[in-house]
Amino acid sequence: MAPIIQYRTGPLVERTILHCDMNNYFASVECLYNPELRSKPVAVCGAAEMRQGIVLAKNMLAKERNIMTGESIPEAKAKCPDLVIVSPHYPLYLKYAKLARSIYAEYTDSITVYGLDEAWLDVTESQALFGGGVAIADKIRERIKEELGLTISVGVSFNKIFSKLGSDMKKPDATTEITRVNYKTIVWRLPVKDLLFVGRSLQHKLFMHRILSIGDLACAEPLMLKKLLGKVGLMLWQFANGDDSSFIPEENEETLIKSIGNNITSPRNLKTPQDVKLLLYVLSDSVASRLRSNQMLARTIQIHVKDSAFQTKEYQMKIRNSTDSSSEIFFAAMSLFSKQYAWKNPVRTIGIRTSGLENAVVSQISLFDSEEPAREKKLSLAVDEIRKRFGYFSIERALLLKNKNLSSLPIRSEYAVGTRISRCK
Asked: Does 118 qualify as catalytic in the annotation?
């Protein structure tokens, strides 16, 4: 049964949740700024020369040619020889995401951000002012189109899970409502992979037990699902039955940040520990800076390694004291790599992720801390300020100056919010 919540201002009220999904977001922004692209199949891709040449997003004409997110540029070109490839412009995408959120904020202050192009809006208490959920969704769609020149699809439902399913069902520029009356007819017939958090691995396990649709999942025995998938099985069973009470809590977005990390795909394979050391220095500096900007400390350090055969390994460790120090993050990451990586193949991609985060303002200080961490903290903050004013590469470690081809690589930032999965759209 879906959750019913008590508001301070009145009796029990069922929630009305919108999920707003900006259509073909990166590609739509590119077409907005270059009208000549609007009549052509377009794909936004990473830099091929940096070996990041995959499709990040595509417009509707490219979708009609079966261009898929995540495939390589050669694969996409083989399907669609006239495909127009454009490079991503992240500052523009961030600008329009903020503009869209400013429109959402005129209808509710309860907004849960899910990446640049998606957000949930709880409009339960806004309906007396702006009309029902569908009416609000239509107003927002029209404003996004008129004021920003972009389109969005909106799902309207009594929980976040079903509202997201609704926004995925009709694209582009549509509103879909899923209610208590129609959800079994609409939702249960969908393949189980369409449910939030059901990835390939979970889908395979469910298929092995003849759970093919969301309806199959909803009607499955909860104890069997718990035995098969643990707590995740029960959570997915709740989702399929319209109960999202185990989902992300209603909190400020900043308090939901559970991990901060970066990764780099090198322009050449890394064949020596020294090459890896250089990139781990770059990553550690970036991750530590982001921790400090969010006033957070990390207790767990994880590294992600993809080799030249595209095999991926992840290793992690807990450190004694929570930190935002680039040196401490680096030494932990380098220790993990040295002890765990067997060098069967050269390294293609490497990343660092920090988790076990806590608020730096209220964290506990060890009685045995020396003055050295305090001095390093002041130095780090000074470096942050210099980079903020004059650019990231205005000040660097001397070790990196001989290896500018590695140290100046673009870094892909990753913020994991709650149980959110980072995706390119």
From this structure: yes
